[in-house]
Amino acid sequence: MAETVTELDRLRAFADELIGDSADSWDRAGTIPEEIVRKAGARGLMCAQVPERHGGLGLSSADNGELTAFVGSRCSSLRSLMTSQGMAAWTVQRLGDRKQRAALLPRLAGGEQAAVAFSEPGAGSDLSAMATRIEPDGDRVVVTGEKVWITAACYAEHLVVFGRYGDGTAAVVVPAHAEGVRVERVPEPLGCRAAGHARVRLDGVRVPAAEVLGGAGQSTELLVSTALAYGRMSVAWGCAGILRGALASVSRHARTRTQFGKPLAGHQLVARHVAELLAAEQTATRVCAHASHCWDTRSPEVVSATVLAKYVSSRHAAAGAATAVQVLASAGAQESHPVARAYRDAKLMEIIEGSNEICELLLAEHALSVHA
Ligand SMILES: Cc1cc2nc3c(=O)[nH]c(=O)nc-3n(C[C@H](O)[C@H](O)[C@H](O)COP(=O)(O)OP(=O)(O)OC[C@H]3O[C@@H](n4cnc5c(N)ncnc54)[C@H](O)[C@@H]3O)c2cc1C
User: Fold this and answer.
1) Helical spans, DSSP H, in 189-267
2) How far apart (Å, rounded) are the C-alpha atoms in residues 311 and 367?
3) In this structure, are residues 256 and 250 in contact, taking their beta carbons and an 8 Å threshold?
4) Domain end: 55, 88, 109, which one?
5) Which domain range does residue 131 map to?
6) Residues 33-91 pLDDT 10s
7) What are its cofactors (predicted)?
8) Lining residues, ligand 1, CB within 6 Å
9) How far is CA 329 from the centre of its chain?
């Protein structure tokens, strides 16, 4: 019987061809060619979970997760652009009104790149300290502030900017090329070097008030947790991908490299590394699949399951990528090797979308409320 080819299969094949063996050269250049980003966007790869009625591919969280893991196994920079784009689209879908969804989602689903800006020099883990101001001025709002480490900002046409609005918080969609916006690339990031991280200065940027998503003056926690829910899920699946890539490199090397008269895999201490990597990859995949299942079934458990997925997967990815470098030893000890890149990229995953410590605080809070 002929096997059915799914949309997920087609998207993976497309991503495979698009990335080819270019991830290393993109990492070295610190940028992904515009044409690649455009093609990925036009195919719907960047935010494949956007519903079909809004011009997206309507993938489930589980399928989008597998797609994200596939791209993450090959190129964490392109995967980072997917995370930002998906997070922007999810923010519009959840916080925007009907008119805003109809206006923005088809553009994002069609490939107009977006970045999401919370972090500031004085507001990293503590986003209640955001100082960016969004102030009403007739039928416009004026946005003033400074955002740091904004993934994808160097590629973006749209910036979803979070800031203070009266006594509350708001998210506003700002054209990246509007007067008063300055995007300054972060020099030499440790990893995900082609993900277009930038400092974004907003100097009295005037945008129509209609671009404030779902009205102004909402709770910071609600706005931020809505956007981060998607970001955490996406990073978690990306980390499962990093582990898959590391496991493949390690398995190939351990079978083919001979020392002391037998393949490395024949030495039990090396075999243990392989076993640990497999366990890490399987653990990450399962915890991500559970979180996506909660997302797809609209389970109230989705919030804690997503934090758990991000926490578990990023820790395993950072440890697993280090193990991969250990097994490949000198063969993996050059910047251009995929395991070396994975090692640098994975470390950053323990910092973003809620650092390990912030995830631990959230998980402890959850445990204390549920299990006490
Ligand atoms: C590669 C990369 C991509 C990023 N992309 C984006 C993006 O697209 N958009 C965006 O808005 N931001 C982005 N960021 C910023 C990111 O969200 C922040 O770096 C992150 O929230 C941590 O903030 P910080 O770096 O200021 O560290 P800090 O908040 O200063 O924390 C420093 C250390 O203290 C710990 N810590 C802080 N508070 C506590 C506490 N209460 N209890 C225990 N430990 C604590 C932290 O876990 C960390 O280990 C990105 C960052 C990186 C590195």
Assistant:
1) 220-256
2) 15
3) no
4) 109
5) 114-217
6) 999 999 999 999 999 999 999 999 999 999 999 999 999 999 999 999 999 999 999 99
7) FAD
8) 84, 116-119, 124-125, 149-151, 192, 197, 348, 351-352, 355, 357-358, 361
9) 29
